[in-house]
Design goal:
Layout: E1 4-7, E2 14-16, H1 23-35, E3 39-43, H2 49-60, E4 64-68, E5 71-75, E6 86-90, H3 95-105, E7 111-115, H4 126-134, E8 138-142, E9 145-151, E10 155-156, E11 159-161, H5 167-178, E12 180-181, E13 183-187, H6 195-202, E14 207-210, E15 213-217, E16 226-228, H7 233-245, E17 250-257, H8 264-271, E18 276-284, E19 287-295, E20 303-304, H9 316-324, E21 329-332, H10 345-349, E22 358-362, E23 365-369, E24 379-382, H11 387-397, E25 404-407, H12 419-425, E26 429-432
Parallel strand pairs: 2-17, 3-16, 6-7, 10-12, 11-13, 20-21, 24-25
Antiparallel strand pairs: 1-25, 1-26, 3-5, 4-5, 7-9, 8-9, 13-15, 14-15, 17-19, 18-19, 21-23, 22-23
Helix pairs in contact: 1-2, 1-3, 1-6, 2-3, 3-5, 4-5, 7-9, 7-11, 9-11
Length: 433
């Protein structure tokens, strides 16, 4: 269904349902499993377009990978990962695949060309090319964008401070640091998601972590292990907000990852009045997980500060939908990074105006004037090829008179396979148009 209309369900959403495995951890498990000695098994594999790009990339570099449903077995290539020749890798729409793979191959043999679709070619790659170049790799971008060509070299450790909070750039440097001579240190002014650090530790790599910095000594090799993925909290956020905007709803989402570097959106929603419970938290393979319970509630506007943005960056589009139904204004600042995601998400979210929501756009954020719980008016919006924009407006349609038509909605398969089918299972009126 390239274009869908999502309309209100006849009653509240009530169910216990799972969400796809965590996409961020899946990427990292594929890359580290390919680099590891021995076998890595990943369970709960989400299977969306982005992680399939990473799977294809690792196969292109020589790792043996078998997939059966949501289970993936990776026979690590260890020091044999890569090729002495030239390898061209299609990263699709996945910035994670491109940036992390650049770090992975920076100390390897041969030349790797990383390319992607039109959207990925617009995303900034100079921010990863600079530190890898400082370590000794020859990295060429196309005017700061993809295609990116990496010629591996003997690497030296660096001490690098991130100017923009980025888990992808941090991870690329740490992956290159495994092949570097000496100890590589990355400093980040604001904490970004730490899945790479946690997974490196789970696979036997020694790290030194302090407030605002991570160090890894070169010459270490991950050791294969089992990596059971928790449910993706970014995917769960869309269902959480769905329950918050449809009166009478009550959802339970079991086994969702609640890594504290990823739960910023839940904290913001609670501040807006959302009754979200986190039940039964426990760690598996270094990652905390729990059941999320949420029910409908009247929301109020809030202010999202720059310090909160890194911990909620992927959820900001759906937070804007929640804000559209709240009492009062919601202000988001310090979110310039939204301009260079799969789309210009700030510009894409202006489409809330078409649904009757007051929106003021700023260079680094938005001000949204909520409807006070009133339903939105019907409208048609463009996803701009962005999975999170497509899903956010799909959720908006659950509480819009006449529904919302989302063009290019199947892009949601990038991160949440079957998202619109899931809404239909919950009772929403979902139809292709």
């Amino acid at each position: 269904m390239a274009t869908v209309r999502v309309g209100p369900p006849p009653r509240g959403l009530a169910a216990t349902l799972g969400v796809p495995g965590d996409k961020s951890i899946a990427h990292r498990a594929l890359l580290l499993g390919a680099l590891a000695e021995g076998t890595t098994t990943v369970s709960g594999f989400p299977g969306g377009g982005d992680v399939l790009s990473s799977l294809g990339a690792m196969r292109a570099l020589g790792a043996r990978i078998e997939r059966a449903g949501d289970a993936v077995r990776i026979d690590g290539a260890g020091g044999r990962l890569g090729s002495d020749g030239r390898v061209v890798i299609d990263c699709g729409n996945s910035g994670t695949t491109m940036r992390l793979t650049a770090g992975l191959v920076a100390g390897g043999p041969g030349t790797v060309v990383l390319d992607g679709d039109a959207s990925l070619r617009r995303r900034p790659m100079g921010r990863v090319a600079a530190p890898l170049g400082a370590m000794g790799a020859a990295v060429e971008t196309t005017e700061g964008h993809a295609p990116v060509t990496v010629r591996g070299a003997a690497l030296r450790a660096i001490d690098w401070t991130l100017r923009v909070p980025s888990a992808q750039v941090k991870s690329a440097i740490l992956l290159a640091g495994l092949a570097a001579r000496g100890t590589t240190r990355v400093c980040e002014p604001l904490a970004s998601r730490d899945h790479t650090e946690r997974l490196l530790g789970h696979l036997g790599v020694r790290l030194e972590r302090a407030a605002g910095s991570i160090e890894v000594e070169g010459g270490q090799r991950p050791i294969g292990a089992a990596v059971p993925l928790p449910g993706d909290v970014s995917s769960a956020a869309f269902l959480v907000v769905a329950a918050l905007v449809v009166p009478g709803s009550e959802l339970r989402l079991p086994d969702v990852g609640v890594n504290p570097t990823r739960t910023g959106a839940l904290a913001i929603l609670r501040r807006m009045g959302a009754p979200i419970e986190v039940v039964g938290t426990h760690d598996v393979a270094g990652e905390p997980r729990a059941e999320l319970r949420v029910r409908w509630a009247r929301l109020r506007g809030t202010t999202v500060t720059p310090a909160e943005v890194p911990g909620a960056i992927d959820e900001l589009p759906i937070l804007c939908v929640a804000a559209a139904f709240a009492d009062g204004e919601t202000t988001i600042t310090g979110a310039r990074e939204l301009r260079v995601k799969e789309s210009d998400r700030i510009a894409a979210l202006e489409q809330l105006r078409l649904l009757g929501v007051g929106v003021t756009v700023r260079e680094d954020g938005l001000v949204i004037r909520g409807t006070g719980g009133r339903r939105l008016r019907p409208g048609r919006v463009e996803s701009h090829g962005d999975h999170r924009i497509a899903m956010a407006f799909g959720v908006a349609g659950l509480a819009a008179d006449g529904g919302v038509v989302v063009a290019d909605a199947d892009v949601a398969e990038v991160s949440f396979p079957g998202f619109f089918a899931r809404l239909a299972e919950l009772g929403a009126a979902v139809e292709g148009v």
